[in-house]
Amino acid sequence: MYTAFTVDVNTVYKETAIKLHSTMSLARKAYHHGELRESLLESAEALLEQDGPAGLSLRKVGRQLGVTPGAPYRHFEDKDALLAALATEGFRKLRAAMLATQEGAADGQERLRRAGVGYLQFASAHPELFRLMFGWMPARDVPELCDAGDAAFAALEGILKGCDEEGLLSRSVNEAGLLVWSAVHGAAFLTIDDRLKLSEPAPDAECVLNLLHDGLWSGIGRH
């Protein structure tokens, strides 16, 4: 039976396919300009979002770009190395998303709210990448991945230290960081797993964050 649900599913699938095709086209253009590693990562992320880690392989990424089967292996030793590179770039993008809208914020409280919005928006836009970043462990040590993850957390820590220096916190930076990150990170996974049934339609990232922020600030902010 061709129902409204069928229409919705087909629409989502079509939109995903169009997005993937567009991403692959851009990646191919970049490859032909000699930027193979970046093109491989762009194509790999698009495939990751479509098929998840299980559906990703170096050969599949290479085929999408139209390169020889051995070309991707000149940049990534194996699939594990490719996933580690994707997660590393993911943490760098997450950090950038949290810091992107800080300029013009009135105080530390507003900077913290904006960082939370960026965190949720990143998770919503890159759900499979977000799951990879926090739910997968490489088989070998990857220092650059650890550094990128630490830098992302340091961005949040820096905002909280600014709040503390402004005399805005009623708790220590460590306590406030634990509360804030736990709440926002949990909300991110609830969002991408479609578990937030607060209203119809589901609230967007900013609405969710504003609700969280008001409750969190009452517990960590100085009154």
Characterization of the model:
- This protein has 223 residues and is an all-alpha fold.
- It has 2 domains: 4-74; 79-220, Orthogonal Bundle (Tetracycline Repressor, domain 2).
- The protein is built from 9 helices and no strands.
- Helix 1 packs antiparallel against helix 2 (36-51), helix 4 runs antiparallel to helix 5 and helix 5 (108-125) packs antiparallel against helix 9 (205-220).
- The chain is elongated and about 60 Å long.
- Mean pLDDT is 86; it is low at 1-14.
Cα-atom radius of gyration: 20 Å
The dominant shape is: elongated
Report the order of strands and helices: HHHHHHHHH
So how many helices? Answer: 9
Q: Per DSSP, what share of the residues sits in E-state strands of 2 or more residues?
A: under 5%
Under the CATH scheme, which class of the largest domain?
Mainly Alpha
Per DSSP E runs of 2 or more residues, the count of β-strands stands at 0
Briefly summarize what is shown:
The protein has 223 residues and is mostly helical.
List descriptors.
Tetracycline Repressor, domain 2; single chain; about 220 residues
What topology does this entry show?
Layout (H helix, E strand, L loop, with lengths): L3 H29 L3 H16 L6 H8 L13 H21 L8 H18 L1 H9 L7 H23 L7 H20 L12 H16 L3
